[in-house]
């Protein structure tokens, strides 16, 4: 969770990098609408825990700030609008959260508390029944265009949302209910947003989206074509967020492995390491595909660091299936794991499958995280004594290497600078780095 605070309103972002980028659009809309005394929660619904955290934060804000207007938007608000309204919060649909008119009456009309106060639910994100009563199997929303979302100027890295929604039907995921089918921003609009980031001095741009690798499917272009257009700008560092392994085509593979301005860090949406689980998830790759892709990536560019999304305790997952996912951490050299226990999402097919139980899912997730931490620590330890380029964050001390290793400087450097450093030793999850003469 991250905060963005202005004089008269606050935006609290939960979850993914796309939400962080879209949170800046919310902040701009609040400012342009003249909203005052307002707290907006830009929520996430990837797990039950994410929704629980959003509900908890909303309750606390209503209790601690009785004179403020509390607004909920984002994926959890789409899936549980009625529940948030019953608390006394206002709800803004995902597709409307960046629009000035969504907040036009805040600070003007009297503040309200109690059920049915969702007057700011400007329009449903798509024409459909409420998601909590919907069925993902028969859900066919009408696609809309997407406006790029650019995070604020308060970090050295800029998150640039280029795509939203998903047109796949993974059995565990409620994203299609919360965000609809995949829609991409135009190449020209993304390039213009990137120019804005570069003009304010941000040295790295991180492309993000709900299903980033599907960028352009709705408009006849591709993620590789978008990356090539961005590389025509004077961008120094370009990083891609999560990619479906089956969508890394030859053009994208060549960019990831041959273009030095694309950072050597590939995060893959793997979800599991067992073929039966992947089949029941309705994923579009198999275990051998993931292993082979990582082998090819590292053979072409050995310094690439691998990240991955993994779900523990998917319905029907037995001990041998889980063992295959556990072994995938080593087989794919995963050093940045985004690991969480499965939680059933209402309206998804997986919620109707035989469940393994929350405790089992939590225990398996803890086992995966521990294995991933061991792998990451060995990887970090092996970098002691090596040199790399570090992008220094605004505090002048912290930042990231090209391979996404988290670094802390032994002595301050100019914020927002890219400096050559030598890595000394690991300190927990970070490497201590010292600046060296260029």
Structural notes for this entry:
- The protein is of the alpha/beta class and 438 residues long.
- It has 12 helices and 18 strands.
- Helix 11 (319-331) links the parallel strand 12 (305-312) and strand 13.
- Helix 11 runs parallel beside helix 12 (358-381).
- The radius of gyration is 22 Å and the shape is globular.
- The two termini are 36 Å apart.
- The model is unreliable at 1-7 and 108-143 (pLDDT under 50).
Tags for this model:
438 residues; alpha/beta; 5-stranded mixed β-sheet; disordered N terminus
Low-pLDDT sequence parts: 1-7, 108-143
Strand order of the largest sheet: 1-2-3-4-5
What percent of residues adopt helix (DSSP H or I)?
Answer: 25-40%
How are helices and strands ordered from N to C? Answer: EEHEHEHHEEEHEHEHEHEHHEHEHEEEEE
Global Rg:
22 Å
Task: Please report the distance between the alpha carbons of the first and last residues.
Answer: 36 Å
The major sheet is characterized as: 5 strands, mixed
How many distinct helices?
12
Mean pLDDT: 88
Number of strands: 18
Q: Specify the structural class.
A: alpha/beta
**Beta-strand content bin:** 15-25%
The coarse overall form would be globular
Describe the structure concisely for a colleague.
Helix content is 32%, strand content 22%. The protein is an alpha/beta fold.
What's the topology here?
Blueprint: E1 2-5, E2 9-13, H1 17-33, E3 38-43, H2 48-64, E4 69-74, H3 75-79, H4 81-87, E5 90-91, E6 149-150, E7 157-164, H5 175-179, E8 183-184, H6 187-199, E9 204-209, H7 223-231, E10 237-240, H8 250-258, E11 265-271, H9 275-281, H10 287-300, E12 305-312, H11 319-331, E13 334-341, H12 358-381, E14 387-392, E15 398-401, E16 406-409, E17 418-427, E18 430-435
Parallel strand pairs: 2-3, 3-4, 4-5, 7-9, 9-10, 11-12, 12-13, 16-18
Antiparallel strand pairs: 1-2, 6-7, 7-8, 14-15, 14-17, 15-16, 17-18
């Amino acid at each position: 969770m991250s905060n963005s605070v202005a004089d008269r309103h606050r935006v609290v972002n939960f979850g993914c990098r796309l939400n962080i980028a879209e949170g800046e659009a919310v902040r701009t809309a609040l400012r342009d609408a003249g909203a005052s005394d307002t707290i907006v929660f830009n929520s996430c619904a990837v797990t039950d825990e994410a929704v629980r955290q959003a509900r908890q934060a909303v309750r606390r804000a209503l209790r601690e700030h009785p004179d403020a207007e509390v607004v909920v938007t984002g994926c959890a608000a789409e899936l549980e609008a009625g529940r948030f309204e019953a608390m006394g919060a206002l709800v803004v649909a995902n597709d409307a959260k960046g629009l000035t008119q969504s907040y036009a009456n805040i600070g003007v009309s009297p503040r309200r508390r109690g059920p049915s106060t969702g007057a700011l639910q400007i329009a449903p994100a798509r024409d459909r029944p409420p998601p909590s009563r919907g069925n993902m199997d028969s859900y066919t929303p009408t696609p809309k265009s997407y406006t790029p979302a650019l995070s604020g100027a308060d970090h050295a890295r800029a998150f640039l949302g280029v795509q939203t929604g998903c047109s796949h039907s993974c059995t565990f995921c409620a994203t299609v209910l919360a965000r609809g089918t995949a829609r991409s921003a135009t190449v020209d609009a993304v390039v213009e947003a990137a120019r804005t980031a570069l003009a304010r001095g941000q040295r790295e741009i991180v492309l993000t989206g709900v299903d980033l690798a599907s960028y352009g499917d709705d408009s006849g272009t591709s993620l590789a074509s978008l990356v090539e257009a961005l590389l025509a700008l004077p961008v120094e560092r370009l990083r891609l967020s999560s990619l479906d392994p089956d969508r890394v085509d030859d053009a994208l593979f060549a960019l990831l492995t041959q273009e030095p301005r694309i950072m050597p860090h590939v995060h893959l949406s793997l979800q599991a390491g067992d073929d039966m689980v992947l089949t029941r998830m309705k994923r579009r790759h198999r275990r051998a595909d993931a292993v082979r892709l990582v082998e090819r990536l590292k053979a072409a560019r050995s310094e690439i660091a691998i990240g991955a999304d993994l779900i523990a305790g998917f319905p029907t997952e037995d001990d041998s299936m889980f063992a295959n996912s556990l072994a995938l951490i080593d087989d794919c050299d995963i050093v940045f794991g985004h690991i969480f226990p499965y939680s059933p999402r209402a309206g998804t097919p997986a919620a109707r499958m035989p469940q393994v139980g929350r405790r089992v899912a939590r225990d398996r997730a803890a086992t995966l995280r521990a294995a991933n931490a061991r792998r990451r620590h060995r990887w970090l330890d092996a970098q002691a004594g090596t040199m790399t380029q570090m992008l220094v964050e605004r505090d002048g001390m912290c930042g990231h290497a090209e391979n996404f290793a988290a670094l802390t400087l032994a002595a301050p450097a100019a914020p927002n600078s890219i400096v050559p450093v030598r890595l000394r030793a690991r300190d927990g999850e970070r490497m201590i780095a010292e600046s060296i003469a260029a």
